[in-house]
Amino acid sequence: MIINILSLGKFKENQKYKSIFEYYRKRIKFKTFLVELKTHNTNKKKELEKKEILKFLKNHDHENVFVLDKSGKNLSSLSFADFLNNKINSGCRKLSFIIGSEEGLDNFFKDSFLTISFGNQTWPHLLVRVMLIEQIYRGLEIIKNSRYHK
Predict the structure, then answer these.
(1) Would you say residue 11 lies in a domain?
(2) Fewer CB near the terminus (10 Å): N or C of the chain?
């Protein structure tokens, strides 16, 4: 399986978040990619960012695309592990998670794809990348019944 994390904006070269993200990414046995998409600074920001994301998802199975947003379904780590396990067991080849920019995502994404949440708080979008990759790693470790989650 391939796991894509689509996120608007970029990590700065020596940013601490980036090193933590890479630490977890390297520990995941599946090919895991961070796809950093261009952000725009115009009054049509969300519309242009929507086009960037949709261009990447052009040939993607929409049942395997998930949006992160505070209004989404709040999953525990165990529930997230079950979710990952179901995707693995169903033969999912590509799983993609979408993280918006600091201004969020166009409502099209929340209306078109399953939306999951890391709680009602607002998190910096760069930190959400780290939280997501850690939860993917944790979920896979739960599936393996390792001691990481205990």
Answers:
(1) yes
(2) C
Q: How many domains does the chain have?
A: 1
Which range of residues forms the domain containing residue 53?
2-144
The CATH number that applies at residue 78 is 3.40.1280.10
In the block, tokens 């920001």 appear at 45
Domain annotation covers residue 40: yes
Query: 66-115, pLDDT tens digit by residue?
Result: 999 888 899 999 999 999 999 999 999 999 999 987 777 888 998 999 99
Q: How far apart are CA 141 and CA 139, in angstroms?
A: 5
Q: Hey, how many other C-beta atoms are within 10 angstroms of the C-beta on 149?
A: 14
What's the pTM value of the predicted model, to 2 decimals?
0.92
- The torsion angle over the Cα atoms of residues 72, 96, 101 and 121, rounded to 10 degrees, is 30
